[in-house]
Amino acid sequence: MKAAILHTYGEPPRYGEFREPEPREGEQLVEVTAAALTNLARSRAAGTHYSDHGELPAIVGVDGVGVLADGRRVFFTGPREPFGSMAQRSLASRRTFPVPDGLDDLTAAALLNPGVSAWTSLAHRAELRPGERVLILGATGVTGKLAVQAARSMGAGEIVAAGRNRESLRRVGELGADVTIELDQDPGAAFAEAVGDKGFDVVIDYLWGPPIEALLGALGRADLHAASRRTRLVHVGGMAGPSITLPGSALRSSDLVIIGTGTGSWNPVQLAESVEHVMRGAVAGELTIDARPVPLAEVESVWNLDGKGTRTVLIP
After folding, report:
1. Where would I find the Enoyl reductase (ER) domain in this sequence (predicted)?
2. pLDDT tens digits for 258-284?
3. 32 φ/ψ angles, rounded to the nearest 5 degrees
4. Domains of the chain
5. What is the average pLDDT across 47-65?
6. Cβ distance 261 to 234 under 8 Å?
7. Rounded distance, CA 135 to CA 207, Å?
8. How far apart are CA 310 and CA 316, in angstroms?
9. Looking at 1-10, 133-142, 249-258, which range is the least confident one?
10. Residue 188 confidence class, pLDDT cut points 50, 70, 90
């Protein structure tokens, strides 16, 4: 069968022939109709993610949409190595979810990975409550835009969105952000102004690196009488850098809780709940995404392209 095959870590996968997957107990063969090119798929193929493909060659792709032998259309995730989702056929296990009739394959494939990440970060990791003040760091990316929409649908009181592209920030405002912050200038000053006397209840972070260091400096309080609120900071991605310098004073001077979200930090029940909420929100028009279909045969040429807020979806 045809597939996107990774031969060497750090190089783009190539379109070619790969052996057919043979289902084991608890698995089903799925005819893939769409598979999104996600940051997770890229980082696993680069060998920089804490989960990788193991022995190569292997088919890339962590999730997708397809049709089972009984005709059911499903979203599937986590196929067994080496049979990733970017192929004509893959393997669906227990992590398989029916796709509603009101959601087309392209949108489902593009939306569910970042949508579930955003929803899980807010609902299960940050435990966002209605009326709370939220900061989305890296809001101009695909997942950041969905985090803004998800926070709005959950009843956030005020949503502050931070990013680097002015035009993309304008779009984020249309999607539900109340305030936008341009990080092209002085992020420390921008964060200090945004924190103000109100602070943030929840921070969803897709950047890490210097932006988080600047934010931590803004969250600190030296005045014992200053208004304070607990801030739950959820780390999701490291687009601005893989590490930070964390002074002890940043923790002593703020009521700050730092946690992460990703594979290994949530359970199957939370995953299923998030998938259900995201699908329902997509059908209702509360969660939207910009998606671009590309033939699977072109995977090598589009692998490292910047989608600029648009999710590339490979079509076998």
Report:
1. 10-314
2. 999 987 788 888 888 999 999 999 999
3. -75, 135
4. 2-99+286-314 (3.90.180.10), 114-260 (3.40.50.720)
5. 86
6. yes
7. 12
8. 19
9. 249-258
10. confident
Tokens found for residue 102: 């009101």
- Which amino acid, one-letter code, is at 278? V
> What is the percentage of the chain residues whose pLDDT exceeds 90?
75
Q: How far apart are CA 111 and CA 106, in angstroms?
A: 8
| Residue 22, burial from CB neighbour count under 10 angstroms (0-12, 13-18, 19+) | exposed
To which residue do tokens 């990013």 refer?
Answer: 163
pLDDT digits (tens, 9 = 90+) for 104-156: 999 999 999 999 999 999 999 999 999 999 999 999 999 999 999 999 999 99
| Rounded Cα gap, residues 152 and 188, in angstroms | 26
3-state DSSP of the chain = CEEEEECCCCCCCEEEECCCCCCCCCCEEEEEEEEECCHHHHHHHHCCCCCCCCCCCEECCCEEEEEECCCCEEEEECCCCCCCCCECEEEECCCEEECCCCCCHHHHHHHHHHHHHHHHHHHHHCCCCCCCEEEEECCCCHHHHHHHHHHHHCCCCEEEEEECCHHHHHHHHHHCCCEEEECCCCHHHHHHHHHCCCCCCEEEECCCHHHHHHHHHHHCCCCCCCCCCCEEEEECCCCCCCCCCCCHHHHHCCCEEEEECCCCCCCHHHHHHHHHHHHHHHHHCCCCCCEEEEEHHHHHHHCCCCCCCCEEEEEC
Tokens 């979810």 belong to residue = 97
